[in-house]
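request received
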Amino acid sequence: MILATSLSYTYPVGSRPALREITLSIRAGELVLVTGPTAAGKTTLCYALSGIIQHEFGGTLTGYLAFRDRPVADYAGVGELNRYISMVFDDADAQLIFTSVEEELASGLETRLNSREEINERITRVMELCGISHLRERPPYTLSGGQKQRVAIAAALAMDTEVLILDEPTSELDVHATGNIIKTLKNLKKEGKTIIIVDHSLEGYRNVADRVLVMKEGRIEREGTFEEIFPETQGNMNVLYEDPDLVPYKPVNNNPIVRIDTLKKRYGDVQALNGVSVTLYDGEFIALLGENGSGKTTLVKHLNGLLRPDSGSVLVKSLDAAVAPVIDLVKETGLVFQNPDTMLFADSVEEEILFGLGNIGSADPQKTIKEVLAMVGLSGSEPVYPRHLSRGERQRLAVACILAMKPGIIILDEPTTGLDDRESDRMMELMMTLQRNGHTIIMVTHNMRIAEEYADRIIAMENGRVIGDYTNLRRKAA
Amino acid sequence: MSEILQYIPGKSFLHHLSPVTKLLLVVVIVGLSVLSSQVPFLCILIVILVIGTLFSGLIRELIHQVPFLLMLSFFLVILTSLTVQEGELLLTLIPSSDPAVQGFGITMGGLIFGVVLSLRFVVMITAFQLFVITTKPSDLVTGLLTFRLPVDYVLMLLIALRFIPSLQLEAKRIHEAQLCRGYNPGTGISGKIRSLKPIMIPLVANSLAKTQVLGLTLDMRGYRSRKTLPLHQLVFGRGDYICAFLGVLILAIFLYIHLLPLI
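response:
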């Protein structure tokens, strides 16, 4: 189906090749899983195989690439290739163009299918497959990140092309939703579709992927069946509540730092928090675990005044978080958002950190900047333009910005999204160091693996309630 | 948070009208408001729009707009009062040294021109807004395509409308992220402008980063060479024909009356 021979590519602005000597043959009906660290060239490979590089991007491309035994360069652009190939990009929000889910799926179908009935039938079927039937009339801005990803996948599936290329389509989905998508892909494979998928969470593809490509620095480093590449279980797919290493939580000290009592919060029709009561103690490393929409982020936003309770109380140290000004609360609790790009705006790393310090009036900013940069492993990058850093570095810079303000409590919202395993472990090591230095760490996540490996207390949430509070023995053993 | 210019589902008369009819009515109303400089007539147009809003159950959305419209009117009246010097002088700001010549100040002519201009803006903004929020975006597209607007431009409008709430949401998220760093929205006009930087730069940079994926998605769905968009069949009802007919009739009569003296 797809044949690449010593394919190399350098982006127009790039100095180093993003792809090096890729030789690859993909048969019809094969499911290929592509994985590897950040910036290994996985996304670029997707762009290359879909013909986007040949027809849309500049840069230098050498080697040979053919699709259905015909050189990709001979096709009349992406306009012709899209009849055979559809692609899901990693930014779900940007690829929803239309103003309702239904239209999103209908777009591109009117030239493929003859009648309105056929289009309707197709849309209905794909929505069922992806579990989004209830979202049919919804405009994109009302969807959560995970729902947007499912709509983007559905829009690609609706095209019913022979080849489907998916670039990290499940990064914001929880285990359950990811499982459903993988099941759908498995069925499509049975129908004879060729599927190429980039993903970081791997275990779900055991017995599904025909082949695994591990990329590194633009090359295919290893290639083989899933069993050959990953003989051991990758990550943890266990259901939390059956885990023998979790025992009911017992406080480790007597210094409560956050006291939340029957906290309720409602957004419109949704009861986001429905009576949460929990006490957090000084120096803990807490993972707040739960599926999409369980109220984790809503809960932590109450700790620094971004949200105020409808009823119930939140005490942070001696401050009443229901009424205390945000400027006072942020000196106690630092919240690092999921996407570092929502905060980075300055022209240099130094200025970026200085912003927070200036706001709270720090005594010796230069010394603090040096210290926090050393702590997050970014020493010497003071003059760098923040957006030129890699994703993992930007995430650590975001932590540094918050850290510089010296809050006792550090909250991280999904700190490992968009990071590969190596970068996420590095992030977590940093958090462990901060814990040793006396900070209390609260980590919001849906990633079981990092919760179990690093947190010493795991609080599970569902539908706006705390459904479990555990001491994590596994981490202690490690 | 209220979303700007987003379709609000409903079952009213306005919702049921075909987008083409509604677009025609908007053109007629805007046309009338531009042609007429009579305050009472413009007021009648506003009353008609308010009645239309009441009937479609969207009066709350309109009330939300009132402060904005009042502010706009206020600035327009100030601007015209200071720039248009016509008719009786109501308030002298700079007296003239020559008693025969009128001084500089707020004049009747300037004031009336300001009021007329404000009313026109109110009519246009309300009419357009009513059209957009009672029309499904896909129908809106159909309507515009019926008027032979090029697909590219229609798609641009559609994408612009689609991303307004996304940008609002992103701005809110950025605002929260900066609050976490002790961000303090400045006071006074210069402070306000300076304090926009930490919000605007990530907003613009993140939006620009989205454009590549957006463009590629359009390409992958085949919109590069497309001459149509996902179409919804246009359905004309009796109400459509009556409204369209009345709209055109009123415009014709109006033009006739206005242009007759010129011939």
